[in-house]
Design a protein that fits this description.
mainly alpha; about 65% helix; globular
Length: about 475
């Protein structure tokens, strides 16, 4: 294990990687409950989707570990799952079986783009100012999510996870807007009499103090402390059962139906265009979210080279692509790299052993998924805020003396949290960069892929 993951070369240890894996898993374990609850609204079997979610996440994590040797964790994306449910099935009129077929096709496109090096070319085409702004933007984004979920900050939309799980009375359009990128209306402090608020602040204080003292596993220690305190205070209850009652995956396994992708309108040019637009939407959002997450977390972990490139990037991207394809076959939506990976990296994770631990824990969730509920939202929220604090330092690498660097970087940093979307931040930042270059008469100096990304995002915002 030490040789396979090159622990000595990466200046890490088995214990540090184990702690990092536990930290990452604890901050994203909610996926085991939230994603199946969301997808079940399409008529999919909840228990089967739970198993599919765990296996798809495990596949993505294990591939990230064994192919790329990076601590990047993967699981079905909540935003993409929401798009699958509300945009494709409930509003678009497709069956969930047809939706899975669309996800499968997008996964094959991911594999093709990765195998040909196109996804890596997109990484290389991102301007340096935007690239350095991505970690800071992601840091603010996940910190806002953490503060909002805990109730420390109220954005008048309710916690992101609650929006996904509940609010069935709201209109479909309202839910899509809330989940997939509608800007928060008002930012204000929540009620500090709420136990979730002061437990989150306590957890954050523990993490900060331990980090200042340079104690290893500070984030995990804070999560454990808040979980224990929440149990003792009665704010978290032990589940009625420890193990899962059923392990039957047949209700979703290989149920994708390519005949159903033509939706309610039948085969025709219009139906074909609709399907292509949906596939393009899945592809663009997952691609840019993955690129942003890879850059943001890799920069924090010190994985980037001096010229800002990520070694073995194609392997990391291929892990994401294969996991998406496998997830569709199992019965879940697009699998993507999670920004919560930053919590494990902040805890010292540097190799694939961290991702391996996360993957094995997801497999264990197939049998022990009720135990995931023991980790309160206040514990994971504190961890997300702590990671946001650690990621903001990347702004020091941005040259704010040049307006053509400042404006795109500003757009990235501001729009990621304000629109609840990594992809939006990157897209608008690149559009701003391209417009400035054209205005300065330097259009010929633009990387072709950079110009293409800008054009695709303009099309997404004006047509799609």
């Amino acid at each position: 294990m030490r040789n396979f993951f090159d622990l000595d070369g990466n200046q890490t240890t088995v214990s540090r990687e184990l702690i990092a894996g536990l930290t990452t898993f604890s901050t994203m374990a909610y996926i085991v409950i939230v994603s199946p609850t969301l997808l079940a609204q399409t008529g999919m079997d909840f228990q089967a989707v739970t198993i599919a979610t765990c296996i798809a996440a495990a596949i993505g994590c294990l591939l990230s570990a064994l192919l790329a040797n990076y601590p990047f964790a993967q699981a079905p994306g909540i935003g993409l799952s929401a798009f699958f449910v509300y945009g494709v099935v409930l509003q678009g009129g497709y069956t969930w079986q047809g939706g899975l077929a669309i996800v499968f096709i997008s996964g094959l496109i991911f594999i093709l783009l990765t195998a040909t090096g196109a996804r890596a070319a997109i990484l290389d085409a991102i301007p340096p100012g935007v690239r350095h702004a991505i970690p800071a933007g992601i840091g603010l984004f996940i910190a806002l999510i953490g503060l909002n979920n805990a109730g420390v900050v109220d954005v008048n939309q309710g916690p992101v996870l609650d929006i996904v799980v509940a609010n069935e009375g709201a209109g479909t359009g309202a839910l899509i807007g809330e989940i997939l990128g509608a800007p928060p209306q008002i930012l204000e402090f929540g009620s500090f009499s709420d136990p979730s608020v002061y437990l989150t602040l306590l957890g954050l204080a523990i993490m900060l103090v331990l980090s200042v003292w340079r104690v290893g596993g500070a984030i995990l220690a804070g999560i454990i402390a808040v979980t224990i305190i929440s149990l003792l205070m009665g704010h978290t209850a032990f589940p009625g059962q420890i193990s899962t009652a059923s392990y039957d995956l047949s209700a979703t396994f290989l149920q994708l139906d390519f005949n159903d992708i033509w939706g309610v309108g039948g085969f025709g040019a219009g139906a074909l265009i609709d399907v292509l637009f949906i596939i393009l939407a899945f592809t663009m959002v997952d691609l840019l979210d993955t690129v942003g997450t890879l850059y943001g977390t890799a920069d924090k972990g010190g994985f980037l080279t001096k010229d800002g490139k990520l070694p073995r990037v194609n392997r990391a991207l291929m892990a994401d692509a294969v996991a998406t394809t496998a997830g569709a076959l199992l019965g879940t939506s697009t699998t993507t790299t999670y920004i919560e990976s930053g919590s494990g990296i902040a805890a010292g994770g540097k190799t694939g052993l961290t991702a391996l631990v996360v993957g094995l824990l997801f497999l264990a969730c197939i049998f022990l998924s009720p135990l995931v509920g023991l980790i309160p939202v206040s514990a994971t929220s504190a961890a997300l805020v702590m990671v946001g604090i650690l990621m903001i330092g990347s702004v020091s690498k941005i040259d704010f003396t040049e307006l053509e660097v400042t404006v795109p970087a500003f757009m990235v940093i501001v729009l990621m949290p304000f629109t609840y979307s990594i992809a939006n931040g990157i897209g608008v930042g690149i559009i701003a960069y391209v417009l400035i270059k054209i205005t300065k008469g330097e259009a010929r100096a633009l990387h072709p892929v950079t110009a293409l990304i800008a054009a695709l995002f303009v099309a997404r915002y004006t047509v799609l």
